[in-house]
Amino acid sequence: VYQNFADLKNIDTPILNAILAINDEPTRTRQELTVTLESSHRVGDTVKVSLWREGKVLDVLVELGERPSRR
């Protein structure tokens, strides 16, 4: 869990990708990410995902698909 972007810049272990926000709403935990997606969006919606990748913050548009079932 990262509280802000500065936390990501100060870690020793490289992180490939970290989701930071959905439509500018911060998602600090997996639970926040799930709640944001399930309460505000539907399959087929397009959302802006802000993520940390290779030392930079990137915004990408993503069309939501169905959530895979747990096995």
Structure notes:
With 71 residues, the chain is α+β, with helices and mostly antiparallel strands. 23% of the residues lie in helices and 34% in strands. The chain is built from two helices and four strands. It has helices at residues 5-9, 30-40, and strands at 17-22, 25-26, 46-53, 56-63. It has a four-stranded antiparallel beta sheet, with helices on one face.
Backbone CA Rg: 13 Å
Please count the beta strands (DSSP E, at least 2 residues each): 4
Mean pLDDT: 81
Question: Can you tell me the overall shape?
Answer: globular
Question: Which segments are poorly predicted (pLDDT under 50) over 5 or more consecutive residues?
Answer: 1-6
Termini separation comes to 25 Å
Note the main sheet.
Answer: 4 strands, antiparallel
Per DSSP, what share of the residues sits in E-state strands of 2 or more residues?
25-35%
Query: Structural class of the helices, strands and pairings?
Result: alpha+beta
User: How many helical stretches?
Assistant: 2
Strand arrangement, largest sheet? 2-1-3-4
The percent of residues in helical segments reads 10-25%
Instruction: Give, in order, the helices and strands.
Output: HEEHEE
